[in-house]
Amino acid sequence: MLRFVTGNEGKVREAREYLPMDVEQVDYDYVEVQSDDLAAIAARGARESFHELGGDQPVAVEDSGLFVDALAGFPGPYSAYVEHSLGIERLHRLVEPEDDHRAAFRSIVAYATDADSVDEAAPSGRSDTDTSTDWHDGVTVEDGVAVATFEGAVRGEIVPPRGDGGFGYDPIFEHDGRTMAERSTAEKNAISHRGRALAKLADWLAAQA
Ligand code: IMP
Which candidate, 49, 47, 44, 5, places its Cα nearest to that of 27? Predict the structure, then answer.
């Protein structure tokens, strides 16, 4: 059984589609450290949650954000704050005068478990050719707890808002001619940054067996 630490039921539903084990939602509010590196934020959150929840079951957390190339990756780890303060239309207006409208949604899934149960050398299986990232999947072991991180990304362009589906930045993020808000949930999940990170975790778990 895996404890998925999030207040977002949609993330848990998506995790259940990819992972082989039972996934239980746990609404624990871990401390989000300040960093421009999503992997560091997610790894710290997973480690803290694993300890706080008793240290007897694997724990996963997911952290994601929108990274705009022309804005040096802004809003990145601050995506939730910017969504609720500026709003997505103002972010679009910030990007509009730039020559380059490219952006990426990125997701890190961090999985914490007892280090004795982990084969650190196991591969995550999929190479993510649709990303250009500075982050690397990997395992860190500290005080007998292993934390493995998996990155997924989807690239696209910032456009004027279109579509009623999805959430967050979906209406201003176009991939392959349609915004994420113009896709059904299943269509979006099939290409989503979170789906790609979860698929890597699933492959890694299979390679652990
Ligand atoms: P969190 O990882 O749930 O904290 O999300 C960080 C920010 O990124 C929030 O503003 C979300 O709305 C946004 N975000 C994360 N994933 C997506 C997505 O799939 N579509 C649109 N916005 C997203």
Answer: 5
What is the extent of the structural domain holding 23? 2-208
Helix (H) or strand (E) run with residue 83 in it: helix 79-85
Residues with CB under 6 A from ligand 1: 8, 63-66, 79-80, 83, 105, 166-170, 180, 192
The whole-model pTM stands at 0.91
Atom of ligand 1 nearest to the CA of 84: 10
Ligand 1 nearest-atom number relative to CA 66: 8
Provide the sign of the torsion angle of the four alpha carbons 68, 74, 79, 83, taken in this order. negative
pLDDT tens track for 117-140 = 988 777 665 555 444 454 557 889
- For residue 135, the domain's CATH number is 3.90.950.10
Q: How many domains does the chain have?
A: 1
Model confidence at 23: pLDDT above 90:
yes
